[in-house]
Amino acid sequence: MLRRLFASSVLATSALALGLFAGQPRTAAAQECPRGTLDARYCDRDGDLVADAPTAAREQVDPSTLIFAYTPVEDPAVYRTVWQPFMDHLARETGKRVQFFSVQSNAAQIEAMRAGRLHIAGFNTGSNPLAVNCAGFVPFAMMASNNGAFGYEMEIIVPASSDAQRIEDLRGRTIAFTSETSNSGFKAPSALLASEFNMRAGRDFTAAFSGRHDNSILGVANRDYDAAAIANSVLTRMVARNVVRMDQIRNIYRSQSFPTTGYGHAHNLAPALAEKIRAAFFNFNWSGTALATEFGKSEPPAEKFIPITYREHWNVVRQIDAAMDVSYACR
Where along the sequence do coiled-coil regions lie (predicted)? Predict the structure, then answer.
């Protein structure tokens, strides 16, 4: 099972495009402070593994317009509309203008927050640790059902007509991944293939990168890829929107459950503003909104935001990263 991969390091990964962050100006005071794996510009005095708010008022930001970005998993045009009711609510709760920012990659989203151009965001499961450590992201919420159920599984899918029945049947074929920062789209399946099946990219199969889960799913449905590693929550929503049919795809592997997209804010927001943002997530009324229509298609359905901690809820993801020798260094 996937959990066995935690016993040892199994697959080195690249620098995850974090060279993009080299040369960014240091905005926090260069002071000695505990920080763990956080970048040198951040402090973690309370030991919760995320960056503390700056203690100096001059280093705290209180912008007139808040920039919000959703993880670049699927079509940004669709999700700008889906998120509008929540952004309107956020604007009322904070007294600020709220603008949707379309991001094309996980690396670009992390870079935007690190550079101070992004204030509130939903980072996908795999990019949360990089956002926390390199961009000062402070996750505090996650979508869940009304009874508190949450999570998704990584699946490896093949075209319905494929003769592949098992993971081993993918030797010599092309497997699509999303991006190197994605948990279900790259890190977890890469670790699984190496630790459980002794299969490595370039030696036992050809790796392709689609950029997004919906691209991977459509690629398998249209037989552009022999297989793909995807988040099944994305597949469920695509089927519900009639973007793809389940009879075009067959699942040959399903993992344990992982946490879903983590929502949070930049560490350096003025504390009073950060509190208003947190409150807006938890007092938002989902009933009848486009957000409820879209994310209620997941299984379990997303029907509210629940509080989470990075230390607890992303522990399994950090274990996968450790097993793959993933570095959180920003340069």
Answer: none
